[in-house]
């Protein structure tokens, strides 16, 4: 972590700590996540928990539950809405049923790099989309990085779009992913992440798509033979708080959770990119047969997904879509 960021968070932390004791109550906060503890999601959750404890002088205690022990992303979202759980981190894609604007992050090939994603997600458009959750009963704090998604399957190498024909491909419970992969010729099957490993192992489905980090940490190499590098979409994660719980917190307690979530975000992105850079080689060592989709085939993929982009623009609202495109154009002109 860069000295400046650390110094800055210490300074901010110091100012929060001095106020913390005064209006911070002793609280247990149940924080759920879907990947296992030894994943980029698990490591960042640990950093978050330690930072909350440090900033609150140990009065706010994050109890972390990984491996979907508190349920799938959608089940945990419902638990937050009902106030039965306080916090979670999970995909934005499964939130589309609660806030349709979240679908904007499922746009295929939206970002050319993770750095571009940082600027947009942490900017006005990212905040506007996150703010849509409050009226639904959820508070979005920050976006963490899931990453660029790639294809795996147990049937054959995917060298061309035709190789996707008839592949039973698990996708997240999200219409954009369903439409996208049906447009690409696959037999797309919506399913919770918590059911995925078993579905691959029992060949209920032939394949799936996730970032290298998740393919590695979830041991998909044990049940998948082929990995095709497509980088077809960048997926964010979002750190959420139950609004019922948030409304009971003092201003200082809220500041502590937000500050700690930002510190953990900066750690998570750096950690995820470091792991992603070495994960492909490790997956090959573990026996996966890797191929990179050619630029021609990626162009064919893009052209097959133009209709999906229009559906997304209609779903999230043309104004928001145009605002995002304008922000990207400005970013790329710098
Ligand atoms: O379900 C998937 O494929 C995801 O990318 C989702 C996340 O990794 C999810 O947060 C795991 O619970």
UniProtKB/TrEMBL annotation:
Keyword Hydrolase attributed: no
Highest taxon above the source species: Bacteria
This protein's name: Extracytoplasmic solute receptor protein yiaO
Similarity comment: family membership: Belongs to the bacterial solute-binding protein 7 family.
Any one GO BP annotation for this protein: transmembrane transport
Keywords, in A-Z order: Receptor, Signal, Transport
Signal peptide feature range: 1-20
A matching Pfam family: DctP
GO CC, any one term: outer membrane-bounded periplasmic space
NCBIfam families in UniProt: dctP (TIGR00787), TRAP_S1 (NF037995)
